[in-house]
Amino acid sequence: MKHLVLCPALLAASLWPAFAQVTAEVILDQDQFLAGEALPAAVRIANRSGQTLRLGGEEDWLSFSVESRENAVVSKIGEVPVRGEFALESSQTATKHVDLAPYFALGQPGRYAIVATLRIKGWDRDIVTAPKSFYIIQGAKLWEREVGVPQTARATNAPPEVRKYILQQANYLKSELRLYLRVTDAGGAKVFRAVPIGTLLNFSRPEAQVDKFSNLHVIYQSGPQSFSYSVFNPDGELLTRQTHDYIGTRPRLKPDAEGNVLVAGGVRRVTANDRPVPKSETPAESAPVSKP
């Protein structure tokens, strides 16, 4: 009977070499984020086990945890959605992309670490990645404005929803000054979106205006003679991005009598970074943003 007792141990031992040949690591494209900003992460899985693995069939095949600098576990707001079955053949790698920001309470500045755990069906061991560090950084508030969210024609008599635009700057890696937009509720407790607008010069003073559709227009100096112009809606979605050069006069925002906001002065320079993608002929002055 002794050989029967040893069978589970022998089975585990036989799985160990294959287990050791499956590795996983967490990958981040950057290591600094503003609170509320999207936190895109990826888990790269390498299979050198000599067998094909079927992954993604279970809700918990891949899970994440985040710890603070004090080794305190960060509270989860929800489970990161990872389901989606696929086969990973031996000698191949696969990468799973996720956004962790909506699923963890990362409102406080500081250093954090992500750990991912891979579970393979039928194996009795978990594959745990090495911790991947990142920082939540504090931005300096430059400007804010409360706006009403435009309603549909069917809801004209309903009380308006109020949101707040907040422009912040943060020193990325202590070498690059970045401008961010945060869209929150009126009290600032709920963050709908935090997005990087672009890199600005140290002496740049961003200018902001809100049009009659509650869209935010922002222009700031991004180069010695160039200014970046962006338009966002109350959901924090980018509607327009343009570049205007200081030629003759300085580009600036100019509201008109109808509540639209235009760029006056300077000369627009069409670039591949423009949104929407420019047509073959583009006027020097930007057109008003249409109502959504």
Task: Give a description of the structure.
There is one protein chain. By secondary structure, this protein is mostly beta strands. It has two domains: 116 residues, Immunoglobulin-like; 131 residues, no CATH class. Helices cover 7% and strands 46% of the residues. The strands form six sheets. Strands 2, 5, 8, 9 and 10 form a five-stranded mixed sheet that branches. The chain has a five-stranded antiparallel sheet with strand order 15-16-17-18-21, with no helix packed on it. Strand 15 and strand 16 form a beta hairpin.
Radius of gyration: 25 Å
Number of strands: 21
Residue ranges: pLDDT <50 for 5 or more in a row?
1-16, 281-292
Main beta sheet: 5 strands, mixed
Q: Give the overall form.
A: elongated
Order of helices and strands: HEEEEEEEEEEEEEEEEEEEEE
Calculate the terminal CA-CA distance, rounded to whole Å.
Answer: 76 Å
Number of helices: 1
Strand content: over 45%
- Measured as a percent range, the helix fraction is under 10%
How many structural domains are formed by the residues?
2
Q: Give the overall average pLDDT.
A: 88
Structural class: mainly beta
